Amino acid sequence: MAIDADGDAGFDLVCEHCGRRVVARWRARCDCGQPLWVDGDHTDADATLPDGPVADQWAFADLLPVEPPTDLGRAAGGTPLIRTPALDDGVGATVSVKYEGANPTGSFKDRGSAVAVAAATAAGADTVATVSHGNMARSVAAHAAAAGLDCTVFVPDDIPRERLGTIAAFDPDIVAVDGDYGALYERALALGPDRNVPVANSDVPLRVAGQKTTLLEVFAEATPDAVVLPVSSGGHASAAWKAVRDLRSLGALSEPPELHFVQTAACAPVAEAFARGDDTVSPVTAGETVAYSIANADPPSGDRALRAARTTGGAVRAVDDDAIERARDNLATRTGLSVETASATTLAAARRIAFDPGDEVVLVATGDGAVEAANRPPPATQSVDIDDVETVL
Ligand SMILES: *Cc1c(COP(=O)(O)O)cnc(C)c1O
Ligand SMILES: [Zn+2]
After folding, report:
1. What residues pair up with 317 in beta bridges, in sequence order?
2. Does ligand 1 come within 6 angstroms of the Cβ of 302?
3. Ligand 1: which of 108, 167, 340 to mutate, most ligand atoms within 8 Å of CB?
4. Strand, helix or coil at 119?
5. Atom 1, ligand 1: which residue's CA is nearest?
6. 165 vs 168: CA distance, rounded Å
7. Which of 193, 202, 212, 257 is least crowded, fewest Cβ atoms below 10 Å from its Cβ?
8. Where are the alpha helices (DSSP H) in the chain?
């Protein structure tokens, strides 16, 4: 489906919460205040779904609102689903890891960035923007660079310097903003419709549309009983649920998997709302955490994540920094996967979930751990003189 550069977006937006339909390019919020989704009522008998591993996310082009790009965006997705038998005993299930670190900039954010940037190009926009302090900023800046678009990245002014470097490599305009991150996020969203600048924030409809391919890919290869995913803004969680709903409406999935979401104990607004039995998420004051990529204290799609977990028989849990770091180190030493610390929350949480023996469980490792590992203090090494090399083994 192409986007008409002059007229409407070429796709409808729907509100999962109140059922309203909206046709407006770059709108992110329903009048009821909840996030909009790109229409996903896929009863289209023409949609063809792949069976088995795919080369990239565009294998699901029939379920996406834009044509496949021909630049970097084409390489988004197609990440491996890796069996990790060494984790089975600790989790009490048959465990696989969906390794999102294999995306072009090292996280699942590329899936949504590719769709948002392709839509921007199709609509004749010359700039994209985002509010982020890490992987999303890097991803949007890279995809914008590939598409020849300008890119503005709003970051919180207390962002660690080393994270700025990985964003700056793609030369976006970086604007450090002093003020509340949640308020900045919502204010930036208003720029989209006002200025014809797509703002590719965490839970905007086009990003969520792209990010649903994480689970579409999993289900093309396997039929897990449960999926475990870290949650910050709730954009990826919302996308996971959208994928399940799309597959169900296509008749391609009979039983939805349990969607289990994980937060860091230092910042767990969705897990706390789940534990209280609330329908809406209340903002919290975030503490310091090793899982800084999932420290959104005021998650814009938190309510949707809550509902996705409840509707599918899953849950939302919080895990503490010690358990997260242990899980990250175990993933590296037992499975050979270097994952970002935020992604290791999935293993830490899975170890606490009482799965049925024989359950198939997929942990979504949302990001690659190489940049973080390079920033940790160097390990002690063994030193020998070259003449003694033979004595080492
Ligand atoms: C962005 C991100 C998350 C959280 O995703 P949301 O869509 O904001 O909930 C988790 N892990 C990594 C590595 C991320 O970059
Ligand atoms: Zn609504």
Report:
1. 262
2. no
3. 108
4. helix
5. 293
6. 5
7. 193
8. 88-91, 109-122, 135-147, 161-168, 181-195, 205-211, 213-221, 235-249, 269-276, 302-311, 321-330, 345-350, 370-375
- Calpha distance 139→293 (Å, rounded): 14
DSSP 334: I
pLDDT of residue 133: 80
DSSP H or E run through 177:
strand 173-177
Ligand 1 pocket mutation pick from 293, 340, 368 by most atoms within 8 angstroms of CB: 293
Which atom of ligand 1 lies nearest, measured to the CA of 296? 8
Any bridge partners for residue 150, and if so which? 127
CA–centroid distance, 27 to ligand 2, in Å, is 12
Measure 137 CA to ligand 1 centroid, in angstroms. Answer: 12
| Alpha carbons 34 and 281: distance in angstroms, whole number | 12
Nearest CA to ligand 1 atom 11: 366
Pocket lining: 234 vs ligand 1, CB cutoff 6 Å: yes
Looking at ligand 1, which residue's alpha carbon is closest to its atom 4?
Answer: 232
Q: CB of 167 within 8 A of CB of 107?
A: no
Cα(12) to centroid(ligand 2), Å: 13
Q: Is 186 exposed, middle or buried (0-12, 13-18, 19+ CB in 10 A)?
A: middle
- Angle, in degrees to the nearest 10, between helices 161-168 and 135-147: 20
Closest ligand, as measured to the CA of 211: 1
> Is any atom of ligand 1 closer than 6 Å to the C-beta of 269?
no
Amino acid at 315: A
